Amino acid sequence: MVIFLKYSVSKLVETIKITTNKALRVKFTFLNKIYWDNKEIWVKGYFVSSGNKRRSNQKICKIIRKRRNSTSKA
To answer: Could you tell me the pTM of the whole model?
Structure first.
């Protein structure tokens, strides 16, 4: 994906999440019942990386392992 410099990554992610949230709720109306108390389907965070694909995959796996370990201890 190419992001032009006039757009920040955070604004792009926000736009994608808002757009897909609305589209998913229209297409799958049962989501309105599941997420009745929360306007958003998506979580607040996101991960962005550039460069080596292999290293990016390793970073993602490390973050997932770290989050799994922290949630299993809580």
So the answer is: 0.55
Structural contact between residues 31 and 24, judged by C-beta atoms closer than 8 angstroms: yes
- For 13-26, what is each residue's pLDDT tens digit? 888 988 998 899 89
Secondary structure of residue 68 in the 3-state scheme = helix
CA–CA dist 4, 26 (Å, integer): 30
What's the Cα-to-Cα distance from 72 to each of 27, 44, 60, 69, rounded to whole Å? 34, 20, 18, 5
Element (H, E) at 26: helix 9-27
Digit-coded pLDDT (tens) for 24-36: 989 998 988 888 7
